[in-house]
Specification:
With 332 residues, the protein is α/β, with parallel strands linked by helices. It has 14 helices and five strands. The protein has a five-stranded parallel beta sheet with strand order 3-2-4-1-5, sandwiched between helices. The C terminus is likely disordered.
């Protein structure tokens, strides 16, 4: 029997990524999507339910990406690929929401069931995120940086649980097919590490960073992790990580990065790889900022829109470069 081929594809949910994902998906017999089972999914794949009707009934943060992905999945299904939705954490979370909607409360959750740890992880991370939003608007720079770090730690704990549950579900499923493609968001790097530990042989296991692949196709290079994701991944792999200066710098840069990055989906025709180029540009910009730079910029951008923030940061860096140039001339 030939060795099983397993590919973990780490990506971002942007429309421009789909051609790169499609190429890899076509090389495998089974595809495991990072999403909970949705009513109407099989009907959409078969054509019994239109893509637009399906998109209209699901909760999606990126509708254009989801729409184009659905059209791709239809083609893959027609070509004989097996397609599965596997995300037990989110599936359990939906079940919890339905339980609460029926009038039940957190105290009624069975503490021996999967629902309870999922509830705790979600409650803790969501609470920390809300605290960050409140602090960002009215709190000091130092308090806001501390709120970022607290959220990142609890978000990392949520990701560790989420990845471990998905690994458990995938373990039995992927063994049933000669080759398997596992879709995951770029922040789920630990899923790859878990598979490496879990599999008896690693020879057929492959990891793809699709953002890297896409950037290389246009002559760019660089790992597409913003400062907030870098901080979260530090805590994912090292829960007890303690380097205050490094943590605070990443947290501070994430505050500026989040104001620079374009958040809405860009329509077709605005340039090649618009989201990836924007993200890489923003990453490169904030890498130039020290903790003190972020401290000075934070009150200037905290209530600014994306365009205004770009101008503020550009002016700040230009003034800084000018000051450095003058200082060099004077010191000669």
């Amino acid at each position: 029997m030939s060795e099983q081929k397993i590919t973990v594809g780490l990506s971002v949910h942007r429309p421009e990524m789909i051609p790169f994902m499609a190429y890899s998906m076509r090389q495998h017999d089974a595809i495991y999507l990072e999403e909970p089972p949705e009513a109407g999914f099989e009907q959409m794949l078969s054509g019994a339910l239109s893509v637009d009707d399906y998109i209209g009934q699901i909760d999606t943060e990126y509708p254009d990406f989801s729409r184009k992905m659905c059209h791709l999945l239809r083609k893959l299904k027609k070509d004989g690929k097996k397609i599965f939705q596997v995300e037990p954490y989110l599936e359990t979370l939906i079940s919890i929401h339905e339980f609460f909607a029926e009038g039940h409360g957190p105290d009624e959750l069975d503490r021996t069931s999967l629902h309870y740890p999922v509830y705790l992880a979600e409650r803790n991370a969501t609470g920390a995120l809300l605290n960050f939003y409140q602090t960002e608007m009215t709190g000091s720079f130092d308090r806001t940086v501390a709120a970022v770090k607290r959220f990142a730690r609890l978000d990392a704990a949520r990701f560790r649980l989420r990845d471990s549950l998905r690994l458990q579900s995938l373990d039995a499923m992927i063994k049933k097919n000669p080759s398997a493609f596992i879709e995951a968001g770029a922040i789920h790097y630990a899923l790859w590490s878990g598979l490496r530990r879990q599999l008896s042989t690693k020879n057929g296991l492959r990891l793809i960073f699709f953002a890297d692949t896409a950037l290389k196709s246009v002559g760019e290079k660089g790992r597409l992790y913003g400062p907030g994701d870098q901080l979260t991944l530090l805590y994912v792999f090292h829960p007890n990580f303690r380097q205050p200066i490094r943590e605070s710098l990443l947290a501070a840069r994430s505050l500026i990065y989040s104001k620079l990055i374009i958040k809405e989906e860009l329509v077709d025709g605005v340039g090649e790889l618009p989201h990836l180029r924007d993200e890489m540009s923003c990453i490169q910009t904030v890498r130039r900022l020290s903790l003190d730079d972020c401290r000075r910029l934070f009150p200037l951008v905290r209530r600014s829109g994306t365009t205004q923030t770009h101008q503020i940061v550009a002016d700040y860096l230009a003034d800084y470069n000018l000051a450095c140039g003058i200082k060099k001339i004077v010191s000669r």
